[in-house]
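As practice, study what follows.
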Amino acid sequence: MSTFSNSMSPPQRRAHATSRASNVGLACSLCRSRKVRCDGKLPACQRCVKDGQDCEYATERARRPLKDQIQNLRQRVADLESQLDASRRSSISVDPQGVREEPDESRPIIMATGSMSLNAEGNLVHAGSSSTFFWFMKKRAMENLPQAHPPTLSYLFPPHLPVTLSPSMHDRLINLAFQSQLEFGRIVDQTLFRADLEENHNSRTPSYSRFLHLIILGHGCRYIDDLQPSLSIDGTYENRGDIFISAAKALVAAEMEAPCLSSIPAFALLAIYVGNMRQDHLAFTYQGIAVVMAEEFLLDQRVSDHVVTMSDSDRRLERYRQMTYWVLSVVSSWHFCVFGRVHHWPGPVQHIEIPFKGSSLQVDPISLVDLAFKYHCRLSKIAGRIVSQIYNRADDRRQYLVKLDQELVTWCAALPQQLKPDGFASNPVPHVVAHWAFICVHTIILHRPFFISLGDHASSDLSMDRCVTAASDILWLMRLSAVYGEARNCSAFYYAIFCAASVWILLAAGVDRRGSDQEQQARSNTGLANTKDTISFLNRAGKVWPSAIDSANSLRELLIEYTGITM
C-alpha cells in the first residue's frame, strides 16, 4: 500500500500500521528495491545467495514524508519555476548552428513536452527546457563556442587582436606608445582613445578604431625592454610590432573604403612605423592616403567662423576636425618623429618635455607639408625623380633640381589659391629650396637615428649617416636662402631648419659614439658649430619673420638640456 493511502487511512488501521513501522525486514536493501523474494535469514557471510553481492540492511523502516517537508518541496518548486521564468528573458535558446543571440519570446520556457520548429531565420529550434534533447543540444553548442570573455575585456582577445594580451601587458604597450612617441604633439588624445576603447571598442569614433588600436600597440612593442615570445619580440627594434602592424595592414582596404576621422592619424602613424623600417615608398603611400582622406573630410577648409551657430555636437566634431588636420599637417610629420625616443637614449638625459613651446607651435596649418604630400601623391612622376636623387651626391642633386624649376612653378600655379605656401615668389629658386628642404626633412623622419643600440649597429650607423647628410643639405639651403630672401618668407622652411638643428644638437651631445675619442669629439664640435650657425641665422631672420626668434629660443633650450651649453 502506498504511503499516500496510508496517510488517508482511518484511525483504527493507523495503529496497526504504526506497530509494523518499528519492524525492520531482514531482506537486504537490494532485494527490497528489486522486490525479490528473500528467505529472510541473515547470512553469516553477509553476501546475498541470489546475487552474490554484499548485503546492505536498512536500520529503520522508511517513514512517510511529513507535512512541513511537503510544504518545503512545494516552495522549492515554486522558487525554481520563478527562477526559470526570470531567466527566460536573459537566457539563450539553442539551434543547430549554436547559441542564438536572442531567446525566442514566442515560446514558453516550460512545456509539457519538447517540440521542434523553424524560427524566422529558417533555423531549427527546439522548445522545451525539460527535454534531454534540449540540454544535449545546448551542451554541444556551448562546447563549440569560443571561450567567453567579459564584454568589457573582449578587446584583449582574438578576433579583435591577433594574440591574447593580459590587461597588464595591454596597458603597458599603450603606455609605452604614448610615453615614447604619441604624447609628442598629441597625435592621438590618450584620454579620448582610452575612453572609447573601454566603451565603444566594437565601433569607430573620431578618436578610436580597431585599426588605430592595432597600430598603437605596434608602436608600443617597439619600446618594450624585455623579450616577449608570445608577441614575437626578438630584440630587433624595427620589426618588434609586426604582429599588430600586419593585422592593421589587413584592414587598410576596408579603412580606405569607409574612412572616419580616426583613420587619418592612424594612417599617419602607420607611415611613421614603416618609415622607420626604411620602407620609404610605402611610407609615402600611407601618408598620401591620410592627406587624401583629409581632403575628403574637407579638413583643409576652415569653418571656425561658423562654430558659433553650431550645435554642441557639431562644435565637438569641428574640434576633432581641426585637431586632426593640425596633427596631419605639422605635428605628425616633423615634431615627435624626431624627438619621439629622446628619453630612451643612453646618457644623462632621462626625460624631455615637448620641445616645441610657445608660439613656435602656432604655424599656419596650410603649410608646405600639405603641398609636399600632394606633390608626392599627385605628381608621382616628378616626385619619383626627386626622391630617386636622395641617394646621389649633393652636387648632382642640386644640378638635377635646377632642371625641375619650370615643372615646380607650373605645379604650384595649378594649386588652389588657399593651398599655396606664403611668400613663394615667381623666382623658381625659392621653390626648389623649399621642396628640397622638405625632402631632406622627410629623410630625417623616415630614417631617424637609432641612437639606442638594440644589437643592430649597421641600422643605427646607416640611419645616423643619412640624417646627418639631410641636415647638411638643409644647412646648405639655409645659407643659400640668404641670397634669395623670398625663401625665408615660407614659414615651413623654418621648421625644416629647426628639424636639421635638432640633429646638430644630438651630435653636440655626443650621441654618435663611433670611432675614436678624437673622432667623436670632432663630430661633437661640428654639431655645436652648426647649431650656433643655425641659431644666429634664425635671429637675423627674425627681423622679417618673427616666429624665427621663437624657433631660435626653442633651440637654445634644447641645447642647454642636452649639453649644458648656453648661447
About this structure: Strands lie at 94-95, 98-99, 115-118, 124-127. The first helix runs from residue 3 to 7. The two ends are 113 Å apart (CA to CA).
